[in-house]
Design brief:
The complex is a heterodimer of chains A (about 110) and B (about 230). Helix content of chain A is about 25%, strand content about 35%. Chain A has about 110 residues and is α+β, with helices and mostly antiparallel strands. Chain B is α/β, with parallel strands linked by helices and about 230 residues long. Chain B has one domain: Rossmann fold (3-Layer(aba) Sandwich). The chains are: A alpha+beta (about 110), B alpha/beta (about 230).
């Protein structure tokens, strides 16, 4: 259940930004979660519900963008969509694939109010 | 977005953040890493599911190497100091981290433990992570090497079911090879699955209890400490 740690990190990060601008409330939180980031999004949503309690994010609308996986073959350079961490390159069959999209765990933006 | 215009009656503002959620952990991990590099400390993060023999592997490794290098251990478990007590019997400085409900170690916990242990220059520091094949994969601790341990008793498909941890590691130990005669597992298939997830993984096959393969693993550690 590392999703709870992730949720707490999201709240801490957003609150730090909001505090720095002397905001009193975070109205909206926009996050990007890669489908291959190792985070279960349903669990994360549930963990966030608890993590925002008694914080500036308590009433925040959460906008989540799920980012699809994309790999680049280290041998032939092909770029392709991937749903796992071990899909071989569709062009040459190599497993030396670097994930270039889908591992995101980012707070993209917040909407604050004073 | 329609938030670019400001309503006069409110101070509603859109802030672009663009920050990694794990940034705080990653920054702390880099601080740990800098400290370890400066003191030439090799830090080995051992990760596996519960019961795959991390502590036994540690005990046997320590007995083989403790005359050559100063060795320190950080033990991570949800509860108890059972593992730390086992390591302490070998007269090696050990610090137990209890994560409570937590399922993995984070860089801050290692930072705290290191302040207590004060590992000496040129030493070997083992971190035994919480037994879990999922969560530890996401949290950089500042270690020099991540080692994932998989057992022959766990079957051939663990690397495919839990790919993140195999992806993050740079060494994979296949433990309990002494049990192979009693198991239906195909070692070659397990090896192939490990390399499918991470072709760069260096694999050691060993039995910590019987001693097979321990020489190679310990030689690898010795080599790391010399460089």
């Amino acid at each position: 259940m590392h999703e709870l740690s992730i949720a707490q990190s999201i709240v801490a990060l957003a609150e730090a930004q909001a505090h720095a601008r002397q905001a009193s409330i975070v109205e909206e939180l926009e996050i990007e979660i890669g489908r291959l980031a190792g985070v279960e999004v349903q669990t994360l949503a549930f963990a966030l519900e608890s993590a925002v309690k008694n914080t500036m994010l308590e009433k925040a609308r959460i906008v989540r963008h799920d980012i699809e996986g994309e790999g680049r073959c280290g041998d032939c350079g092909a770029v392709f969509a991937t749903e796992t961490l071990f899909t071989p390159c569709p062009r040459c069959g190599s497993y030396a694939v670097k994930l270039i999209k889908g591992a995101e765990l980012r707070v993209k933006s917040i909407v604050i109010d004073k | 977005m329609c938030n670019t215009h400001d309503h006069s009656h409110t101070a509603r503002t859109v802030l672009t953040v663009e920050q990694d959620i794990l940034q705080r952990n990653n920054l702390l991990a880099e601080r740990n890493r800098g400290y370890f590099e400066a003191k030439r400390i090799q830090v080995i993060n051992l990760m596996s599911s519960p019961g795959s023999g991390k502590t036994t592997l540690l005990e046997v490794t320590i007995r083989r190497l403790q005359d050559r290098f100063p060795i320190y251990v950080i033990e991570g478990d949800q509860q108890t100091s059972i593992d730390a007590d086992r390591i302490a019997l070998l007269s090696v400085p050990v610090f137990q981290v209890n994560t409570g409900a937590g399922c993995h170690l984070e860089a801050g916990m290692v930072n705290h433990a290191v302040k207590h242990l004060e590992p000496s220059e040129g030493s070997l520091l083992f971190i035994e992570n919480v037994g879990n094949l999922i969560c530890p994969a996401l949290f950089d601790l500042g270690e020099t090497h991540k080692v994932v341990i998989v057992n022959t008793t766990e079957g051939e498909d663990k690397p495919l079911k839990y790919p993140h941890i195999f992806r993050e590691a740079d060494v994979c130990i296949i433990n309990k090879i002494d049990l192979l005669p009693f198991l239906a597992i195909n070692l070659q298939t397990l090896r192939e699955n490990v390399l499918r997830v991470n072709p760069r993984l260096q694999i050691f096959e060993l039995s910590a209890t019987r001693g097979d393969g321990m020489g190679e693993w310990c030689n690898w550690l010795k080599l790391k400490l010399r460089t």
